[in-house]
Amino acid sequence: MASYNPGWLVLVGILVTLSLPYSHAFWGNENKIHTAVFLSPKFVLGPGSVENRFYFNVDFPKGHIALKSFDAEVIDETGNPVPLHETYLHHWVVVRYYVRKGVEISKLDDLKKVNRSDYISGGNSGICQNGILSQFFGLGSETRKTSTHIPDPYGIEVGNPAEVPSGFEEQWMLNVHAIDTRGAEDKLGCTECRCDLYNVTDDEYGRPLRPYYKGGLLCCYDRTQCKVKHGFEAVRRTLYLRYTVKWIDMDRFVLPVKIYIFDITDSWKRTPSSTEINAEHKCKIEYDIESCDATGLGNDGCIDTKRISLDVPFGGYLIYGVAHQHSGGTGSALYRECLFDFGDFEDGQLMCSSLPTYGKGEEPGNEAGYIVGMTTCYPKPGTVEISEGETLILEFNYSRIRHHTGVMGLFYILVADDLPKPMHTLRTVVQTQDSIMVVTVLWAAVALIGVVAVIALAVHYQFKREGEDGYEAIGM
Ligand SMILES: *[C@@H]1O[C@H](CO)[C@@H](O)[C@H](O)[C@H]1NC(C)=O
Ligand SMILES: *[C@@H]1O[C@H](CO)[C@@H](O)[C@H](O)[C@H]1NC(C)=O
Ligand SMILES: *[C@@H]1O[C@H](CO)[C@@H](O)[C@H](O)[C@H]1NC(C)=O
């Protein structure tokens, strides 16, 4: 009788319970981060040439997983990073799709031939329409110094067998748009796809461009050629996009995030009758910046500020945000419209901002004149909540010191439906991996309190049992 103490059973139970979320989320034994490094198919560029390729069924981690980061850079055949002033990386994007098993798509031409019923797009959650900006990940020149890490316990869930249509397979398309500017007469002009430098008057499909279209994606399509200095020669070289994917296996502790991309050129307008919020999003992707020479130095300090407001068709907690800008960009932000301001954007409440970092030297990752990184925002989970239907304001700034064609203003955000359970109380502490020690100490404290409580409980029962003839106190 004396040796039997149910209190210890309770204690073990509590410790086991405590150790579950603890070891899972922070010890990482059960769910460690996997890393894989892949190469895109090779592409070959000579001075002034452009490759805008769509590679289907590229290497990608398999299984039901949660993506934690996706980083990329252009390398040469020997594996050395190539600087932007030689090969300008206009963009790379990664898009998911589903294809009927047995049907093979390896290039864009295959996709055009494939039976519509054999292909299903598997893009992100919005908000542009018609498959525009439907990527899971995508960056440009800023790729080397932009964080894509998704903080614990969040991840982008992919490969969920329950979501793959039956008879289909989940695959990934990688689009790489690179411009070789070695020897270019006007490097910036080539990277901004100025039509005159490419001697392009028709688009890729032979349709004449509108006379006011001076530059942008329609003038630097695959296999176009930008103007090179007379007599300049250099070897064509073989390049790859090297991409590094990190992920963890999906389980019930991982909270999925949804991907949304806002575009500053979205012409969405609130209409009195618009009940379907997702209705008229027209994303044009690119726009031009007039130089202040042309318009005179106004009171805008020679900065072009573009703002739009959007009623968001989703809600949730903001987990991560990053913008994409081209050279000349000076910053971007997402604000929430304040209830008491009537259209006065200046007083919107800042939710997330993303600012460009320019390089200062020559070496890859630090090329002068290029945006080599964008700052990101990681609000503490739970601190920035978006309500469905609320009005957000998107803002993009560009310098007007010179004219720019084909610039972009994209804002990529990750949004979660849920907050992690332990974070409801430890929200401010459990933020990054750096906080592991704090969390460890906290859990140790909690465990200790538990031990003390259980011992107290056990002692209490012991007394109680003795007081009640050692019977039925526990009620087991
Ligand atoms: C496409 O697939 C559907 C369903 O399998 C079939 O009925 C149709 O004939 C196919 N179309 C072509 C052009 O092959
Ligand atoms: C530009 O294009 C036109 C028409 O396609 C062609 O006649 C002309 O030779 C081209 N100029 C250069 C410099 O390539
Ligand atoms: C954009 O420019 C405007 C006007 O100069 C300024 O008030 C605003 O703070 C800038 N926003 C960002 C995100 O840089």
Automatic annotation (TrEMBL):
Pfam families: SURNod19. The chain crosses the membrane at residues 436-459. InterPro entries: Stress_up-reg_Nod19 (IPR011692). It comes from the Eukaryota. Keywords: Membrane, Signal, Transmembrane, Transmembrane helix. Residues 1-25 form the signal peptide. This is Stress up-regulated Nod 19 protein.
